[in-house]
Write a structure and sequence with these properties.
Helices cover 39% and strands 17% of the residues. It is of the alpha+beta class. A four-stranded antiparallel beta sheet has the order 2-3-1-4. Helix 3 packs across helix 4. It is globular, with a radius of gyration of 14 Å. The structure holds adenosine-3',5'-cyclic-monophosphate. Adenosine-3',5'-cyclic-monophosphate binds next to helix 4.
Length: 142
């Protein structure tokens, strides 16, 4: 399969636990190339816009409060099968269901505070990447 991009976010719990370096290590060891990276703090309206697809869900308020509670680190990752391979690296949304050795199994506390986000399709990877990065910020280094 051709190279694919996915948008990952190291969430506020990941930053608060000082695990950004550990998660990046795992990402790079798994063969992903980092195309863009920054640290930002989303406002509540920005978190609501990013997660608009979940607007009707009962956890929407909790999710957007949490995502705007502190800095997070969005990254654009590239490799073959980036979307599905990153979802394997993350583990299941609920850390109680995540496989041993995945980021969520090893570090996440709950379904809400689950360390990382990853796009669910290549199409959404593109859409989500443009939410955080301009075309100019997507670096073609290799
Ligand atoms: P993420 O991959 O960022 O996409 C949507 C997020 O909603 C998800 O990770 C979880 O953190 C969160 N989420 C999903 N289900 C629940 C739930 N039942 N309660 C709280 N948060 C949830």
């Amino acid at each position: 399969m051709a190279s694919e991009r996915t948008l990952a976010i190291m969430k506020p719990d990941c930053v608060r636990k000082h695990l950004v370096g550990e998660v990046l290590r795992r990402i790079q060891d798994a063969g992903f190339v980092i195309r863009a990276m920054k640290m930002i703090r989303m406002s509540k309206p920005e978190a609501e816009e990013f997660y608009a697809v979940h607007r009707e869900r009962p956890f929407f308020g909790e999710l957007t409060d949490f995502m705007s509670s502190g800095p997070c680190v969005p990254v654009v990752l590239e490799k073959e099968n980036a979307v599905s391979d990153f979802r394997i690296l993350m583990g299941a949304t609920n850390p109680a269901d995540a496989d041993t050795g995945t980021i969520r199994h090893d570090f996440a506390d709950s379904m809400g505070e689950n360390m990382v986000h990853g796009s669910d399709s290549a199409e959404n990877g593109k859409i989500e990447s443009t939410y955080f990065f301009t075309e100019h910020e997507l670096v073609n280094s290799s």
